[in-house]
Amino acid sequence: MSQAHHTKDENEDRRDLADCLQSLEIVVEQSSKTLQVLEKFPPETRQAGSQELRELIEEAEKVAEGMRDTLKQQQSLKNRRQRNHEQGQETSVEYREEMQFHAAGLEAFSSDENPATNGCIANYHIIHEGDIKKDEEAICYLAQHEPDRLQQASIPWFSGLTGMYSAFLLLLASATPIVSAQSASWSAAYSKATAALSKLSQNDKIGMVTGVGWGKGPCVGNTAAPSGISFPSLCIQDSPLGVRYANPVTAFPAGTNAGMTWDRTLMNQRGAALGAESKGLGVHVQLGPVAGPLGKIAQGGRGWEGFGTDPYLSGVAMIETISGMQSSGTQACAKHYIGNEQELNRESMSSNIDDRTLHELYLWPFADAVRANVASVMCSYNQINGTFSCENEESMTGILKTELGFPGYIMSDWDAQHTTVTSANSGLDMTMPGSDYSDTPSSVLWGQNLANAISSGQVAQSRLDDMVTRILAAWYLVGQDQGFPAVAFNSWTGGQASVNVTSNHNQVARAVARDSIVLLKNTNSTLPLNKPSSIAIIGTDAQTNPSGPNACTDRGCDTGTLAMGWGSGTCQFPYLTDPLTAIKTRAASDGTTITTSISDNGSAGASVAQSAEYAIVFINSDSGEGYITVEGVAGDRNNLDPWHSGNALVQSVAAVNKKTIVVIHSVGPVILETILAQPNVVAVVWAGIPGQESGSALTDILYGSTAPSGKLTYTIAKQASDYGTAVVSGSDNYPEGLFIDYRHFDKSNIEPRYEFGYGLSYTTFGYTNLAIDITVSTGPTTGQIVPGGPSDLFESVGTVTVQVANTGSVAGSEVAQLYIGLPSSAPSSPPKQLRGFDKLSLAAGASGTATFDLTRRDLSYWDVSKQKWVVPSGAFTVYVGASSRDIRLQGTFTPGGSSTTSTITSSKTSTTISTSVTTSSSTTAKTTTTSSTTSSAGPTQTPYGQCGGQGWTGPTGLCRTPSKLPSQLRNEPHLIIHTTSSTDITALRAAVQGAHLVNFCYLSPPSLMVDGQKLLIDACIAEGVPRYIAGDWSMDTRKLELGKQPPKDPMKLVQAYIEDREAEGRIKAVHVSNACFLERPWVGMWDAKGDLFKY
């Protein structure tokens, strides 16, 4: 079968199942609402209808959970198939086997035991005549057909019930797909959106999802205003650090600086101020914040727009920024989703990212954005595993909308859409700007073309309705239906605003710029300055561009002090306080003489430096978006050296001045070895991309008004090759996997110049009293999908605390950092990963408690086989310190065991050099494991806990794994098939250990069917198996071959036992039925001979 044929069939199957799942979720939600109404009526009125409806809801919820699991399995299949294809591997035989296995699973969702979905999947109809009651049959139709056909199809269901079901029918008829377990705010927004949708014409809907074209509205992106409701033309505008093109606005520090504050409050305040200015100018959607690029490539052109190279830190910054923006009434747009890590060939290259790396690094902060109720997400220019991001069904629908439960809408990056039909069917909800930059009619891919595709059946009407509903819901979510101002500027005519929205936001900008400054070196406490007699200010980076801070379009030059990179992620400076001006102002009050050399000429710099008490040299390194080339740099930096011969400038100055201070403005890491080799360089200050308050914030630090508290959000290496990543000319296969930045340096034991999390202060801090209080169960997540992922993934599992004391003589702020090392049972994991931070402001001599709240996600890794987040078994290591290598305290905890703590007396090491102290068993896990231990007797286990691919080696009759089991299943814990008469609980536990799903299929003897299943269920609970399928003898003719009859109604007894365990929250029954010998398989059912049943 060809690659194209595989993709076509796979996509069709996924869409069929996803559509059915969405419809089923509507049935569950609306049925639940109707049930609440019914319960208010007298018993004689409600009895028949409410009981039947309650049973329907319970069954539908079970089926929906199974559908979600199958969708995840298919995503995993698609990933592996795509990677094999890219690598040129022949996969036809194994792929067919695997597709047979999953096709069987799809068919099973339509089995006679699951009437709620019977017939929903067009390719897998297996309706059994006479087995489906008419009322159940109607539920299938409700999920299968378009709303305008629901009334006729549902007549059998409603015929015997009370008249109030007519109201329920009308609700279903107008329903659109929604996300299960939405937050209250999203649910309210969806209710309004659904009502509004019914009032829109087809032309209205098309206009709301299609931009009006490049340059055809006041904003960089604009939609058409519908006539059917009071809804505006949406104004969609850059950028993540200020409203692009408009003036006056506040030019905030870039995302990289916000990250280097490590301050949640400042991140939120910055977001709130950004949102307030956008709303005040009539901007509905502000294009930011940025989670991609994450920054895996040190030279990457747009890394400065994001918050740093660590997904946890980036995720926290996304949450705080989005919460702030949307609390001010502006829709945030998280971008660029996903794998947009470089500018070179960004519109054609493919980011080929393995599944685990995608989830643990690049998806992590986007999941946090969804948790923060972000209104929209922007898909990126690049391809993801061979398919363009804005055409990629797996990334948009499979992962973002289904796995992460994203209720908002996905918009394209500008001109990142490539097709009409595929983009719509894959999950794109809005195309921007609606045309390409030529704005020719042929470049409009949606608009009338989308309307035609719907008319011809290539795109479903429900897909368009879903797009519009998501856009409406996001608008209602942030309250933009309540007195939102009109657009107050025009991007194409100078941008002068009719209102001033800057308020006191300069104070927020200054605070972020100040608290993001990182002190890298401070020999002999050179800083802070104390009324020096004279200072020489040297370098073009010290002063504003003589032509003005906005002289270059989109900041596309490196002339003057660097306070913003270049590209669409910029805005207009209302003013720029440069370092020279700010230092002169302060020096005047101190009587300090200032001399200058505002050039990058080494001789000129040395000339003014040789007679000064201090010389401050300003250097920089710039980058930006690839549509602009600056001094030969087309977005991504060509190297990691300072620009404008910065190394030579410092050398010349330091040769003649013994108190040389270097200030660096940079978009990302710079190699500093030449500078640090100069013995007269006594202080180095990293100021990043500070925005309009650049000089004021720097002066606050240089003169000690505030002690520096910024920490690096990336590693500064000794040489560029140490990073292990670089800009590539073709597609990027992400060979480094999980190991970027400090993860790579730790794994490869490379000594950095300055590590991730590093930053000095004017005071010192001590760490004591590490306390670990963690209660967590091992195994995978089992929670319902909520915005962000499974609900239990974000549940608190405990805290780690330390005491931090200011042991110096001045006030200061310290960022205490928590890193977690996973047990060895988590394969190929980084030595440690950031999982918490707490910034404490402490007076001299004062102390405080740094508290790190941990969730289940913080202790999990992404299991590609299970397609779930899994807490591994074994000992976790806890590291707390001032940076990723300056570890002060260390401890361990084991779920179900005890914790130990150690004090680290040497700096920048994770070696334990003092004795451990065992604490009380505060880490006892909330685990379902019984007190008995697993015996070594039993099956020979593979690494995933399978029974083995070539037959059973344990006790006779316990477990038979057929030799014809597809090779994929021999190495992945999809399921274990049991044909058992064993009553040995220890052996049963050993058999199911590591499984993700256990399917019971009882063969003999029938007398043990009930008791045997109960034992097996207990074994599953003890080993943390999350799901169980209970099988039975069927009434199929195969029972005659065995010559025995099953006990009467044994499954009712088993079902009652399972329901009790489910009520305790200990296991989830996927299905309870006579599934064992159906002619059609249940999730890949195998018979006693090891043959797959034919279908």
Automatic annotation (TrEMBL):
Q: Provide the top EC class.
A: hydrolase
Spell out the molecular function terms from Gene Ontology: beta-glucosidase activity; cellulose binding
Catalytic activity reported: Hydrolysis of terminal, non-reducing beta-D-glucosyl residues with release of beta-D-glucose
Per the record, where are the segments of Low complexity compositional bias? 898-937
Where is the Fibronectin type III-like domain positioned along the sequence? 814-884
Q: Name one GO biological process term.
A: cellulose catabolic process
**Pathway, according to UniProt?**
Glycan metabolism; cellulose degradation
User: Which region ranges are annotated with the description Disordered?
Assistant: 73-92, 893-949
InterPro entries per UniProt: CBD, Cellulose_deg_GH3, Fn3-like, GH, Glyco_hydro_3_C, Glyco_hydro_3_C_sf, Glyco_hydro_3_N, Glyco_hydro_3_N_sf
| Documented EC number(s) | 3.2.1.21
Q: What GO CC terms are in its UniProt record?
A: extracellular region
Family from the record: Belongs to the glycosyl hydrolase 3 family.
> What biological function has been recorded for the protein in this entry?
Beta-glucosidases are one of a number of cellulolytic enzymes involved in the degradation of cellulosic biomass. Catalyzes the last step releasing glucose from the inhibitory cellobiose.
Name assigned to this protein: Probable beta-glucosidase L
Species in which this protein is naturally found: Talaromyces pinophilus (Penicillium pinophilum)
